[in-house]
Amino acid sequence: MKAKYLKFLNQKINVENKTIAVLGATGSIGSSISKYLTYLKANVIIVGQNEGNLIKLKEELLTISPANSHYFVVDFKSRQSINELIKYLNSFKIYAIINTIGVYHIPLRFVNGYDETYLINMLNNVYFMREFYKDERHKKTKIINTGSISYCYSSIKLDDIQYLNKNNKTKHYGNTKRLLMLYSHYLKENGYNVELAHPGISTTNLFNKKHNGYANFFYVLIVPLMKIIFMKPDKAALPLLLALNESNIELNNWYGPKGIFHSWGYPNLQKYKIKEVNDSNLYSNIINEIDRELLNV
């Protein structure tokens, strides 16, 4: 954690003694968020799918501050596991949840008839929000979802809502983020305390070679170049943390880097534009389709 980023956050947010859950905490950005929150004296609940990595992260957090920290193992492909997470969170007074859970370029495979990327990045994220907010105690809890500027490069199609007919991994990923953003927008529009933020472009684990998302030359030539050009995760985490501000963010606004193409730089408040929201019939049909799918999985 660089001193200049810690100073920036100290001036912007106050989370001392507040309990904040970080979903996807062992990822590159999630672990940075967890460390910042611990430094700022929040009580942090770190959530991820690998217990060994969670234990290792918790030990790192203890070297930053003796503040309370807890961990919980979850499988975001499983509704049962998500239900267990919600039951666990019910035992705390949760101030906010920062959700960085997401996958990219995993081989195309299906779980209960749904592509795994679509299921994890969007459908089960929506399921988590809907189920979490059913508890009256959580009405004031802020959920901050991680959007992506890749949402700009795809459109939602009702006849192919999973975007399976297009052999383009980037657009496939962007579609899941666009849908998550649209449903988050819908919940906020209807009074839920849901916010969006995006990290710009960072060299995270999403570009790990093990995902086999690109040809070998990409990992040999492009990824090293990205590490030089784009932000490190510790800076990319800043927009998600700014969304913890006490005041609600105006609809159609989110925090993201303010640099060129909003891909790097310190964060500020920006506009996002999901064109499907402006078509009331399409908007309603997409929401209804997602709600229908929530019942089917």
Structure notes:
- The chain is α/β, with parallel strands linked by helices and 297 residues long.
- The protein has a single domain, classed as Rossmann fold, CATH 3.40.50.
- It has helices at 3-12, 28-39, 51-64, 79-89, 116-132, 169-189, 216-229, 233-236, 238-242, 280-296; strands spanning 19-23, 43-48, 69-73, 96-99, 110-111, 114-115, 142-146, 194-197, 253-257, 267-271.
- Strand 5 and strand 6 (114-115) form a beta hairpin.
- Helix 4 runs parallel beside helix 5 (116-132) and helix 5 (116-132) packs parallel to helix 6.
- The radius of gyration is 18 Å and the shape is globular.
- The protein starts with a helix and ends with a helix.
List the topology elements.
Layout: H1 3-12, E1 19-23, H2 28-39, E2 43-48, H3 51-64, E3 69-73, H4 79-89, E4 96-99, E5 110-111, E6 114-115, H5 116-132, E7 142-146, H6 169-189, E8 194-197, H7 216-229, H8 233-236, H9 238-242, E9 253-257, E10 267-271, H10 280-296
Parallel strand pairs: 1-2, 1-4, 2-3, 4-7, 7-8
Antiparallel strand pairs: 5-6, 9-10
Helix pairs in contact: 2-3, 4-5, 5-6
